[in-house]
Amino acid sequence: MDAALRSLLDWYAQVGVDVPDIAPARPSRKSASKPRTMRDAKPAAAKPTPKPREPAFKPLDAAPIAAKAKTLDELRAAINAYDAGVLSDGARQAVFSRGNPAADLMVIGEAPGRDEDIAGEPFVGRSGQLLDRMLGAIGLGADDVYVTNVINWRPPNNRNPEDHEIEMCRPFLNRHIELAAPKVLLLVGGVSLSAMAGVTGIMKNHGQWQEVNNLPALPIYHPAFLLRRPELKKEAWLDLLELRAKLIG
After folding, report:
1. How far is C-alpha 247 from the geometric centre of its chain's CA atoms?
2. Please, what is the average pLDDT of the chain?
3. Which of 152, 143, 167, 34 is nearest to 90 (CA)?
4. What pLDDT is stored for residue 15 in this prediction?
5. How far apart are the first and last CA of the chain?
6. Which of 240, 62, 52 is nearest to 151 (CA)?
7. pLDDT of 144-169, one tens digit each?
8. What is the distance between the alpha carbons of residues 57 and 150, in angstroms, rounded to a whole number?
9. β-strand 145-149 against 105-109: which pairing, if any?
10. pTM for this predicted structure
């Protein structure tokens, strides 16, 4: 009980006022919280088990598929039916070739672009038109050239083909060369040079003969690159003269 109240009640009692008995108040105390034990602690929410990742797409080995093709038409059909994953999923169609398959010169570009994806033939856009003019300048017409690419499908957003995509398509290209049986290869652009000859750096290696599949192969600037760097056309012309000399010889 409060001391002031106790004193007042005592004074009331001394002067004859009846004061009810009031039990002394118990000292108040806050209930002490029990320390939390490991048993009392709320179990932590279990982390969700991560879902297993879907296995990465693994294409079929193209080597036995390509080897079964006995003609260019059979090889074209095999490529059209092949599941190339991201490449074939994002492309309208496979791009096989154009020109004369019996020609002495086989041109190997990098990959189809938008125009090629629509037309189903390689080198039909602006760069293809420039390529035709370049070859025409040394006397090569449509019947003198057979054209294909390292990759048979347009890569997403016209990006360069990735190494694993080049390796996936390599058996098709090797079989393509075997069936067409050209005498000379023309490697158009840095990707074609790297993929076919294992050499990097088109700026320093253009016009330098390589050996690919036991055939002489000449790397040249890609026409799309020449459209951006027209000052290099003089160097490109010298490379074309080197190609003409080889074909004549």
Report:
1. 37
2. 88
3. 152
4. 47
5. 124
6. 62
7. 999 999 999 999 999 999 999 999 99
8. 21
9. parallel
10. 0.77
